[in-house]
Specification:
- This protein is of the alpha/beta class.
- It has 3 domains: 4-148, Rossmann fold (3-Layer(aba) Sandwich); 151-264 and 285-312, no CATH class; 318-385, Orthogonal Bundle (Rna Polymerase Sigma Factor, Chain: A).
- The protein is built from 16 helices and 11 strands.
- Helix 1 links the parallel strand 1 (4-9) and strand 2.
- The structure holds nicotinamide-adenine-dinucleotide and magnesium ion.
- Residues 150-152, 221 line the site of magnesium ion (MG).
């Protein structure tokens, strides 16, 4: 049997490395065609030697020679720089892109892969937050499946299998609440990066960990869900579920609800997206109903976690606002991770940027690129002050 050839964009990250674990465990089903990373040359080389892709791409051009030298006795191609990422996405020697780059940087390669007619397993939620209308329209035109990797969206996708044209009344995204569930602004004002990085249920990359601690992650996911499942803003809701066992729910027109459940382990949605429509056996840990358990639900604290309110505002207003919000958030998270600004300053930075950048109701792709740049510059200029 032919293997499905996977191009992993962002292979050295949390999603990328877990995807390689899944591939290693299912070598009869999957092979690796492309691996890309921004900085971590050492890990990229190790992965290349283990999985023997056609091509590796390193973002940081200074690392090119190190990698080239390490792979000199192999047939693996080496490239570097931002343009090389898009060239790799345009290659014909892979079947599916796992879009696992973090942030806005994932947008262009993913668009290129769709243009190229390749199936997408989408972890990079920022791609849909920034330009969801354009990305999904292009995918439809090219008849390219976009299969979510984000656990909530994988849950909804799984709930929808077999439902055909049955109408969705609403979807309910579950949120763990992050490390600061129940906390108030007087506590949050003093929070430092190392505390914010400690998520109770998931081990993830730095950016999404901070986004989870501010609940911006759930806001990004609401926008991601709107585009993935072609919903109205009002149909996308959030509930806090601290145990992260129900990964999300769909409520249909007849009031019936479906949920997808399991222990929090990203390998499951990664494997599901890569193998869809098949389910593959594995030895991941199972949830045990016989042990004492409580599954609980509560309303998010929108007043304390104002990033979520800002994202809901962006979801409803649409246009270039989610793109602007995303750019400001990336700058804010980056500055917070470097101890340049405080935890609550992130919200202020995003809010001021959203108020400043001119609103565009029906942006073109070029408008999105420009809005992203303007928002970044403005947000960065506030931090300089
Ligand atoms: P990460 O920081 O662990 O890894 C990011 C990867 O992208 C790395 O391989 C890095 O080299 C690469 N990268 C970073 N900046 C880049 C740039 N400018 N250009 C090219 N490549 C770049 O991140 P992660 O936690 O694996 O998350 C990846 C994406 O998946 C994010 O969009 C995140 O929101 C989403 N996601 C992650 C999880 C999770 O559990 N980690 C869950 C759901 C969704
Ligand atoms: Mg998620």
């Amino acid at each position: 049997m032919q293997t499905k050839r996977i191009a992993i964009f962002g292979s050295t990250g949390s999603i990328g490395t877990q995807a390689l674990d899944v591939i290693a465990a299912n070598a009869d089903k999957f092979s690796v065609a492309v691996l890309t990373a921004q900085n971590n040359a050492e890990l990229l080389i190790k992965q290349a030697l283990q999985f023997n892709p056609k091509l590796v791409v390193i973002g940081d051009e200074k690392k090119y020679h190190t990698i080239k030298e390490a792979l000199v006795n192999t047939t693996i191609g080496v490239a570097s720089g931002e343009a090389a990422l898009e060239e790799a996405a345009a290659a014909d020697y892979y079947d599916m892109m796992l879009a696992a780059i973090v942030g806005y940087a994932g947008l262009k390669p993913t668009l290129k892969a769709i243009d190229n007619g390749k199936a997408i397993a989408l972890a990079n939620k920022e791609t849909l937050v920034v330009a969801g209308d354009i990305v999904m329209k292009k995918a439809l035109e090219k008849r390219v499946p976009v299969i979510p990797v984000d656990s909530e969206h994988s849950a909804i996708f799984q709930c929808l299998v077999g439902e055909g044209r049955n109408k969705i009344e609403k979807i309910i995204l579950t949120a763990s609440g992050g490390p600061f569930l129940g906390r108030k602004p007087n506590f949050l004002v003093n929070v430092k990066r190392d505390h914010a990085l400690q998520h109770p249920n998931w081990s993830m990359g730095a950016k999404i960990s901070i986004d989870s601690s501010t609940l911006m992650n759930k806001g990004l996911e609401m926008i991601e869900a709107k585009w993935l499942f072609n919903l109205q803003a009002e149909q996308v809701q959030v509930v806090i579920h601290p145990q992260s066992i129900i990964h999300s729910m769909v409520q249909f027109e007849d009031g019936s609800m479906k949920a997808q459940m399991g222990l929090p382990d990203m390998k499951l949605p990664i494997q599901y997206a890569m193998a869809f429509p098949q389910r593959l056996p594995n030895d991941f840990k199972r949830y045990d109903f016989k042990k004492p358990n409580t599954l609980s639900f509560e309303e998010p604290d929108f007043k304390t976690f104002r990033n979520l309110s800002l994202a809901i505002d962006a979801l409803h207003k649409g246009g270039n606002l989610p793109c602007v919000m995303n750019a400001a958030n990336e700058i804010a998270v980056f500055a917070f991770l470097r101890n340049r600004i405080g935890f609550l300053d992130m919200t202020e930075l995003i809010e001021r940027t959203m108020a400043k950048i001119p609103f565009i109701e029906k942006p073109t792709l070029k408008d999105y690129f420009e809005s992203d740049g303007e928002a970044r510059n403005f947000a960065a200029s506030i931090i300089q002050m």
